[in-house]
């Protein structure tokens, strides 16, 4: 499988597809640096460019899962299918993630977080 930085090994591909690569983030949750639900940490060069109201997302702890992460769980496959993947990410996916994370910012609740966790467990594991 091709990604921006080269080729992923079979082992790396297994870790990603099984979500075992997320296990170290449980330590971050236990240390209070992350939460179970919240905006996924994004690659450098994106969240630091947020302006205006969109910067409110930065007030939230990054999370292991989110509604945006559920929607774009297959983001790499979506990008591989695009003629211009970086442009598609910049113009379609990232703005949608920002919109969804802002919606989470304004409407977050305990039961909303439980719903997201339930969807992850039921539909993505």
Structure description:
- Helices cover 53% and strands 8% of the residues.
- It is mainly alpha-helical and 125 residues long.
- It has one domain.
- The longest helix has 23 residues.
- The mean pLDDT is 86.
In short:
This protein has 125 residues and is mainly α. Helix content is 53%, strand content 8%.
Number of structurally distinct domains: 1
Distance between the termini: 21 Å
What's the number of extended β-strand segments? Answer: 4
State mean pLDDT (0 to 100 scale): 86
Shape: globular
Structural key phrases:
globular, single chain, two-stranded antiparallel sheet, mainly alpha, 6 helices
Blueprint of the fold:
Layout: E1 2-3, E2 6-7, H1 10-18, H2 23-30, E3 35-37, E4 63-65, H3 67-71, H4 75-80, H5 85-107, H6 110-124
Parallel strand pairs: 3-4
Antiparallel strand pairs: 1-2
């Amino acid at each position: 499988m091709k990604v921006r930085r080269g080729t992923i090994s079979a082992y790396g591909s297994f870790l990603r597809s099984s979500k075992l690569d997320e296990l170290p983030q449980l330590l971050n949750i236990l240390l209070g640096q992350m939460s179970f639900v919240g905006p996924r940490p994004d690659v450098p060069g994106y969240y630091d460019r947020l302006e205006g109201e969109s910067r409110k997302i930065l007030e939230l702890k990054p999370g292991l899962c989110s509604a945006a992460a559920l929607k774009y769980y297959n983001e790499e496959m979506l990008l591989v299918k695009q003629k211009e993947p970086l442009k598609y990410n910049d113009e379609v996916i990232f703005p949608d993630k920002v919109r969804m994370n802002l919606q989470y910012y304004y409407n977050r609740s305990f039961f909303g977080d439980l719903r997201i966790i339930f969807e992850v467990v039921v539909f993505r594991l």
